[in-house]
Amino acid sequence: xxxxxxxxxxxxxxxxxxxxxxxxxxxxxxxxxxxxxxxxxxxxxxxxxxxxxxxxxxxxxxxxxxxxxxxxxxxxxxxxxxxxxxxxxxxxxxxxxxxxxxxxxxxxxxxxxxxxxxxxxxxxxxxxxxxxxxxxxxxxxxxxxxxxxxxxxxxxxxxxxxxxxxxxxxxxxxxxxxxxxxxxxxxxxxxxxxxxxxxxxxxxxxxxxxxxxxxxxxxxxxxxxxxxxxxxxxxxxxxxxxxxxxxxxxxxxxxxxxxxxxxxxxxxxxxxxxxxxxxxxxxxxxxxxxxxxxxxxxxxxxxxxxxxxxxxxxxxxxxxxxxxxxxxxxxxxxxxxxxxxxxxxxxxxxxxxxxxxxxxxxxxxxxxxxxxxxxxxxxxxxxxxxxxxxxxxxxxxxxxxxxxxxxxxxxxxxxxxxxxxxxxxxxxxxxxxxxxxxxxxxxxxxxxxxxxxxxxxxxxxxx
Length: 463
Fold this sequence. Notes:
Pfam families: Arm, U-box. The protein is mostly helical.
């Protein structure tokens, strides 16, 4: 681009601009070098500047640059900002409105959405759906502007298929959805194919966001059954696993969770079906709960009780997914109370005592320890010796930190437990060693317990 700011384009216009600039430079040099004021040179310079300005304005309106994406010429220069696509920064050919209310050029926003994104590029708002609504008003305004400036806007636009979804893919997707309301054999075939495609192709997951009824159609075989016996276990497993696949990307989480039948069906799946179905239902709830709004929805649905029951069963395939789901849900206060009420403390302490998934489960107990009721249950279930033994045995600094944090809360809630901790300290110096060698948080908690022990001993001696 020329330094003068005159846009490159028609070679004749560029050459004329360069000639004007050279002549202007000579005139300016003559004006500056001469001792007397050369009025004639000043007048000529002014005329040159006006000619250069006129050329610039003319070029701004008429200049067309080749648009490599569409294969058409694209206007540039003085295009009003409201007519430009926020993604391409070019004049929109087919303006469409997305769920956030923002307008984009269709092929660019399609590419954005089919890459797995489920947020508005402008506002970062999570989109409730990916339906594209034509913005007829903006299109008419663009057409009028183009007409006024002598620019031809093509009536039809050929879109490239860079995102990897062809018309055949989309047609196949729709045919699979149609099969979900057909015979059992068709449903099983379609559900298995959906499961495989959503696992392999991020762009295929995005297709579910293009229609508000895509997920309900996927779920129809199990949502319309009056009892669990009416659908085949393998069919349920494939559908629940497809939901998990759809939930993997953050941008899909809001749409999936807020589809009314999804969470109730996941909760039902936690209670029935193959162990893989139950495990994948837990994993789906875990991935969906990345959003705080989804945590609240899932907690209110009653999902914690069947998650805790599945944890209690202790099936190796499900343990990690269930523990992850419970941990994520308990980040918000209301769900902590629900988990404690639904028996989480008893179940988790039983697993920890058996040294099952200690890392994950200790993190949950540490989180629940902010609840007074949880602490009371820990005291009743004699959690102190178990926690102290983990500190002695574990090589994991994080586990030691969680244990001492829980013990710190217990000793401040129930003074009677200080005696057990003091006996541990006399015998193994467990807490002192952690106060010296633990993480910064573990050191603070261990020191706090030691200080409380000493205070209790001094009070006893004084008495």
